[in-house]
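Lab notebook page, bench 4
Experiment: in silico fold of construct C2
Operator: M.H.
Input chain length: 351 residues
Purpose: comparison with the prior construct
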Amino acid sequence: MTTVDVPHSSRSVVLTVSGVVEETADARSLVFAVPDELRSRFEYKPGQFLTLRIPSDRTGSVARCYSLASSPFGDGDPKVTVKRTVDGYGSNWLCDNVKVGDTIELLPPSGVFTPKTLDHDFLLWGAGSGITPVISILKSALSQGSGRVVLIYANRDESSVIFRDELRDLAAQYPTRLTVVHWLESLQGLPTPDQFATLAAPFTSFESFMCGPGPFMDTVHKALAEAGVPRNQVHAEVFNSLAGDPFQDAAPVEVTEEEAADAATVSVTLDGETHELSWPRKQTLVDIMLAKGLDVPYSCQEGECGSCACTVLQGKVEMENSEILDPEDIAAGYILGCQAKPLTDRLEIEF
């Protein structure tokens, strides 16, 4: 049995695995029991993820992000789904070792791959385990929204289809609102942008959300552009392995008198409240917010997960790593709080 008793940071918690579901030969779901006193911390939006701390003989631990495949509306305890990847230490360890009753340390839900409203019509794209955040959005939109949902789901073959029975049941339950299109490489080969553009053509007014391997996402992006879908209707989830340790509390920010004198001023709106902060030029936005005891959303602090994405309403920043943001996102004012440092004297930012 794998047990963790004490969390390694003030932000992380230890939860018990209440269920293990073997989804396919190389994918399984882990369900976590959330005690009443932690319910508020584990409220989540469709499409968000959990960050798990996985033991490692070599490094002590590794941190991995896994999307919530459950819906916050009626699915009960949160569930993540893990698919083995070749040479993937985290996924293979979770698939080989975790049993019901084990405990795992994790960070509360995070991520920005989530619809602003569930009343849209949705064109959803998933490939392999990329179905996990997508099915959370799909189930939530069907139960809480009023629009149509079209899912295009690519896999190697029929045996690779995660949530096959659940998707079939949902299609039967919502026959006029849900359409599921399976793309199997064993039958149809790898999809091309032209083929996906043909599938997307009737749904160019729908909001598109996609998750899957890089080549799949590239194909979908090209297909949607070819079909004429506006860029602001296209949303992609991107996961990268984390090099750092998000389970360590951030070190205190040390600021010299000279840095304090030259600091910018920022007005930050978080959870409806506005805070006026001094922002030294060498510190990131997440650093200064943590130093003030604010519950800023963040996970990796490496610019790789998007948890700390926010919007600049006034002023300018520089960022070391912003690859997870599309040029269109940056043009619209989106920044990563863990990477942003001030360029102007006065800024206004909203989470």
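Observations: The CA atoms of residues 47 and 133 lie 4 Å apart. The two ends are 40 Å apart (CA to CA).
Next step: discuss at group meeting.
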